[in-house]
Amino acid sequence: MTPTLDTVFAALADPTRRAILSMLLEDDMAVTDVADPFEMSLAAISKHLTILTRAGLISQEKRGRVKWCKLEPDAMKGASVWMQGFGQFEPVNLDAFERFLEHHLDTAEEE
Predict the structure, then answer these.
(1) Which of 37, 44, 75, 110 has the fewest CB atoms within 10 Å, i.e. is most exposed?
(2) What is the pTM of this model?
(3) Starting at the edge strand that comes first in sequence, how are the strands of the sheet with 66-71 ordered?
């Protein structure tokens, strides 16, 4: 079964799951190593990993007695293609926007 775009975006909506994906960019990791930096139970991390697996964003395999997680970057292609459809909009330069706001806030305070 191919995960739907909704499933992928739902999986990406959680900051813990996004952090896990970022960690897996470096290399495959054992589940216990994935859980290590988070202040939550191994069971809670396992639930996050299950959601990422169902979305096709990672795969899990048992090697000996250790369960490993691997990033599956192709699963994000559909989401990426969908988002690129909005590329007609100008990208926002956040630094310039921040300077604009600071300038106008300073001007408003002077008045």
Answers:
(1) 110
(2) 0.74
(3) 29-30, 66-71, 58-63
